């Protein structure tokens, strides 16, 4: 596999290797189904439950793969440094705990309290900072400098080992839902969806892959239409707090090559889909994951979905701040 | 097996027969675990997820067994009549839908809207009535009379076929958690816990069985202390809307023989346990099921739990009216 400094996306073989590497640490998450949601929308839905993954999201896969490989390539134990408002932060802190390493996490001021507390519970050191990317990056540089030459930054998505770890979700989907013909995944920085694209398109190229994105974010939708990476202008405001990252430089080319479409979803659609998934599947789905549900409910209106019958929706996480969710909309 | 009119509790063989009868219709629900809850309380917890059962609760098992047996013993198709504020109502309506039968359900005025709507979605006819038992019983007699001689009442718990169907949860627990040494189940009319007692105590008598009951209900706790069935004086007020039935005449002797203890839980403990289970297990647990979680968190304080290590908590249902849950308590 490419050295992380090489900045080359992983291959399907790198993803298979990642699957072996992380196997002792991760859960092979189940697929759930719902006849009532199937009847409502005319598809056979298969929900890949990464909300049941360790630390409550898929992020643990990529992080464990990246950190394990960092350790292999060094004589001294690394000191992990990361920035994240939530799920990646928890994954880095938990990985550090399991590996006996230190984790220093920069968390912007909009990070949910429940996620900050979880990082601390796993033994991570949390550094607050402002909300703008220059502030976050300057805080990270400060923390890295403080920690000295053993400090290693684990990027949340623009890292081939992280992408390879997330891609193991795609391998499992192909094993668990062999008849799958479309996959719907929420996109943020693009680590998960790019990993899934590489794994699935290499093995079963006919599978269509759809990205779900909040309308209030939109850089992925605009980039997809423009066929080039369009930067994000300001921090977007959405209930899906896990979906506010700009698309990565390493992930974008993979998406441009493989995505079937980007499906924008409104805030109202995300909230309705969140409650519907709670009620029908009896599982806790975070707003970022609900964006994928919402997109899958709109799939039937897209001409590219003609012929699609078996749709796998990736439930990317279940970390919700239950004290601050908006009330259920009246129907 | 005893004829339903015989009013004799089922045997473990009746429960094994029920398991065969309902196998094509039910889900074999999974067991979930949580290292964080284990660390908090010092047990190995195994959560038996009947919230993922069809219709969102264990009730479907007993109902399907009872109705299948009613059909076997008749020349003309029965017309199903039942009373229930929620989960039994949904189970009867769904069973009727699958068997091509009619279901007429008397639902008292305190029934959650979400459960009434679900019964209607399954094609059941709903009859509103007041909240007091005499009103409910008189409404049932009226409905039965209207439906004529083919009307058959499916009692929610005082019916040996229903008890046998619920007892299949116990058989599955022994298969899925062979090292189990205690089971915690919420109790209402007693159909589920009596079925579990008969199945588990017949096969592995060393297993301790604990009933969880809201303090605001209390007839099971008082009956257990008094060693005789003590009637309920008025309809109890608790967030656990599924746990307000008085203990049955057929279920009580089973409980008296087999229960290790009854663990009362407060409303605050139920609500906290509900949110904790949502956050840690990422599953939707209804307040009645949260009562069992709350009781299992108090188990370590009971002298009867000395030596207990592997505790199975039955998650009896996941039907929550999300529009009307109390907010998460601040910690």
TrEMBL record, chains A, B:
Cofactor names: pyridoxal 5'-phosphate
Keywords assigned by UniProt, alphabetized: Lyase, Pyridoxal phosphate
Protein name, entry field: Serine racemase
Domain Tryptophan synthase beta chain-like PALP intervals: 23-317
The UniProt record lists the keyword Chloroplast: no
Biological process annotations from GO: D-serine biosynthetic process
Superkingdom of the organism of origin: Eukaryota
Single GO term (MF): magnesium ion binding
Provenance organism: Oopsacas minuta
Family: Belongs to the serine/threonine dehydratase family.
Signal peptide as annotated in the record: none
